[in-house]
Amino acid sequence: MIRGGRAIDGKRVLRLAGGLQMRTGNLLAGACLVAAALALAALATGLGLTDTGLADLFRTLAGESLPGAENYALWTVRLPRILLGFMVGWAVALAGAMLQSVARNPLADPGLFGFSQGSMTMIMLLLVFLPAAPKSLVVLAALAGGLTVAGLLLWLVGSERSSGLSIVLMGIAIETVLSSFGSLLILYLPTETSIALSEWLAGSLFQANWTVIAAFAPLFVLSLAAIFVLGPAMATYDLGSEMAMALGEPVGRSRPLILLTAVVLSSAAVTAVGPLVFLGVLAPHIAGFLSPAVARARLFLSALMGGILVLLADALTRGLGGSLPMPLGLSLTMVGVPLFIIALRLQALRKLQSH
Amino acid sequence: MDRRSLHLLLILAMLAIVLVVHLFFGFHAADLPNLIAALQRFEAQSYEEAVLLFQRLPRTLIAIYAGGIAAASGFVLQSLVRNPLASPATLGVNSGAALFLVASALLFGASAELQGIAALAGALAGFLSSLAVARLAGRRNDPRGLSLILSGALVSMLFTGMTNALLLSDPARRAEFLSWVTGNINHVYIDRLAMFWWIGALSVAILLLFARPLTLILLGADKAASTGVNVPLVSRFAIGAAVLGSGSAVAVCGPIGFVGLVVPHIVRPFMGNNLVHALPASLIVGAIVGLAADLIAREAFYPYVVNTGLVTDLIGGIVFIVIVKRFYLSPGSREAS
């Protein structure tokens, strides 16, 4: 029941029976990205000191047993890293793409806006005042922190008419304040906790394990549902909220829902690996560069791109860095800033052409 | 006596009070006569006197130096770049100096003097890269210079990230720089102050010397040129002096952020835009803020002593938010744009 055809703008689309239509270009890009993610993951299983890799993985899946060191490297270190890295990148990039549509600001990013730092600060407050708190409370604290910063930013920035750059600057300022506040909080933590924390503060996959993955997986599935449900609204928000209202979008209901989804995604990612700045703004831009898309397709491609970028950054730091234990957040910043500047430049060029 | 001189006297009195509190806070009142005598003799006979002479006094001097220089160069930068958010911390100057200093020490094993020169080069490099990025990403429609500040923030993030990566790559020497990198006023850095103080003094002297022509430039480049001021030369000299001066402060105690952003906004309402009056006032108020921040860092979190840079980041970030809110997001400014 799938028919090919052309959309109003002349691009090739596939039409499904229910009236759903997808652009062939986006489908192709999606397939390529999935293939790239799988290839990267396969490559990453073979990166590291212990000599093991994809072949060993298939062998264990077929029922053979591996020697201790290889088994440990594969199942306890590398696979959790790859899986968690992909899912976290997915979540952060998705949050970024959603924020960009709702805020109508191409520079929106949960890290740059300070949401991640808000989650961190709240988690640290919890660890200082209630050291025996259960894990579930940590997740809630992260969510509360992210929401608080989101509310603060909305209150500070006021109406959406204000210029895009000032929101970013405001977010960076909030981030600075919160991160120095966080460094003060570290003082009041017991030494063991603070050493583990400082690694996590920099954003790293060192502590990836199957428990974290099991906790994160349901959210990953939910985020797929969110893409499906919220996707169409994004296309209308991209046109501005007046236009969205005119197109029948229940702005009063869907805007808070989208914001909440973005904050949930980013705070879950922070709980798992720490803050990853720039990922949320980079992934949608690169995905859009590969294949311009709107609505669900844009969210899906951006999220895939986010996962790939994290896999790539992690593989690069492990492969090239060698003995250098570089945290993921740091390598993302060092790759992210130049790319961000290029994105700004491209945006400026586009503006010049349109004027 | 006019209003400005009165204000100047007032802040001088405040400086004296903060100075005394910074030096003597925490000592027993009964010890004070002995301590003052020790200060005059410059010779310690007891533990308390040694603490005063060899820990407190160096901290005081560094705090005055770092605060005063940052404030003066912040005022000049804000005036010349015509941006209320300009300061050594927001234009990549501090992070550039920190990166170059750490790189020279870790990669080339530079001595302390060479590290200072590297910091000066880094300060210039940071400022110039911020300008370059702003031009690259330049929006024609950006009359209020927000993209310059955003570029500064991006350059700072990149340079700070590179500094951290360098430090991670050398665990053996990491401890040596780890607290310096976040801006730490500490008595052990007094050697560095002894080495580099003249750079800051020179740059302040240049700025004070150029105070009159700079004020004329603020009224408009054409007007200044018509009174015989060599506008490009004076502006470049002044910006160079401001950037190098704050680079030297970074070389002493690491990046103490945001003093240069905050102080000009405190000074301007009282002293006006005329640099002849505002520059000395900025120096004094900067010293007061530096001393106060150091006092908070030292005493407020007892039994811990935190890095002074943390305190200034915390306070300065809040002021930054207020400035963005007031200058860029209030209804009046939107109409004006």
**Low-confidence sequence ranges of chain A:** none
The description of the largest β-sheet of chain A is: 3 strands, antiparallel
Query: Strand fraction band of chain A?
Result: under 5%
| CATH-level-4 superfamily name of chain B | ABC transporter involved in vitamin B12 uptake, BtuC
CATH topology of chain A: ABC transporter involved in vitamin B12 uptake, BtuC
Elements of chain B, N to C (H/E): HHHHHHHHHHHHHHH
Under the CATH scheme, the architecture of chain B is Orthogonal Bundle
Which CATH-level-2 architecture of chain A?
Answer: Orthogonal Bundle
- Biggest contact: A-B, 44 and 43 residues
The CATH topology name of chain B reads ABC transporter involved in vitamin B12 uptake, BtuC
Considering DSSP H and I runs of 4 or more, what fraction of the residues of chain B is helical? over 70%
Count of runs of 4 or more consecutive helical residues of chain A: 13
Helix content of chain A: over 70%
Q: How much is the radius of gyration of chain B in Å?
A: 20 Å
How many beta-strand segments of chain B? 0
Mean pLDDT of chain A: 79
**Structural class of the helices, strands and pairings of chain A?**
mainly alpha
Compute the average pLDDT of chain B: 85
Broad CATH class of chain B: Mainly Alpha
- The neighbouring-strand order within the major sheet of chain A is 1-2-3
